[in-house]
Write a structure and sequence with these properties.
transcription, 8 helices, DNA-binding, elongated, Rna Polymerase Sigma Factor, Chain: A, RNA_pol_sigma70_r2, 72% helix, Arc Repressor Mutant, subunit A, mainly alpha, transcription regulation, 184 residues
Length: 184
C-alpha cells in the first residue's frame, strides 16, 4: 500500500471515528471524500447503465453507511466496510432492475431459425405404438399428444375429471413405455 493510500485510509477511518463521536464537520468531510470514490466504483461495476441509475446506487450506499455507521468496528479500516456496503447496494439495484437487454426481434428475423417441421415418420410410429394400447389409453394419448389438445378438452371428451385424467395418463404412459421396451 502506498503512503498516500495508507494516509487516505487512515483519514477515512479517523474521520468516521470523529463523526461517530459527534463531529459534524468530520462527517461532512468524510462523505465529501467518499462520494467520488463510490461514484467511480459504481460506474465501473455498472458499465452501460445510465448516470442517474448509478447516482441512485451511490445515494443508497451513502444512506446505508449513515444508518449502519454504528456497526462499523472502529478498530478496523473503514474502506473495506464501505466497499462491502456499496457492493451489496449495487447487487440489490441490479436485482431490482433486472439485467435484461431489450432488442427488437424484427432486427434478427432473418437470422432466427424456423421451428422444425414435425417428423412424419416419428408421428406415424407413435400412432402405431399408441394403437396397440387399450382403447381408453390410446384415445387419451391421441388427444393429448397427437392432436395436441388441452387436458380439459381431452378430459371432457373422455368423461374424465382432472384427477382421473392425470391417473389415466400416468398409467397409459407406463403401458406405452412397456410396449416400447418390448420392441427393443
Amino acid at each position: 500500500m502506498t503512503k498516500d493510500a495508507g494516509q487516505a485510509e487512515g483519514d477515512w477511518s479517523q474521520l468516521m471515528r470523529d463523526a461517530i463521536a459527534g463531529d459534524q464537520r468530520a462527517y461532512r468531510r468524510l462523505l465529501t471524500a467518499m462520494t467520488p470514490v463510490l461514484r467511480g466504483l459504481v460506474r465501473a461495476r455498472a458499465a452501460g447503465m445510465d448516470a442517474s441509475w448509478c447516482e441512485d446506487v451511490v445515494q443508497e450506499t451513502l444512506l446505508a453507511i449513515h444508518v449502519k455507521r454504528a456497526t462499523w468496528d472502529s478498530g478496523q479500516p473503514l474502506r473495506p466496510w464501505v466497499y462491502a456496503i456499496a457492493r451489496h447496494k449495487l447487487v440489490d439495484a441490479f436485482r431490482r432492475r433486472g439485467r435484461r437487454i431489450h432488442l427488437p426481434v424484427e432486427d434478427f428475423a432473418d437470422m432466427l431459425q424456423a421451428p422444425p417441421e414435425p417428423d412424419m415418420l416419428e408421428r406415424r410410429d407413435a400412432g402405431t405404438l399408441i394403437g396397440r394400447l387399450p382403447e381408453r389409453d390410446a384415445a387419451l394419448l391421441r388427444c393429448l399428444a397427437l392432436e395436441e389438445r388441452g387436458s380439459d378438452e381431452c378430459g371432457a371428451r373422455l368423461g374424465l375429471a382432472p384427477g382421473a385424467l392425470r391417473v389415466a395418463l400416468h398409467r397409459a404412459l407406463q403401458r406405452l413405455a412397456r410396449l416400447r421396451q418390448e420392441e427393443t
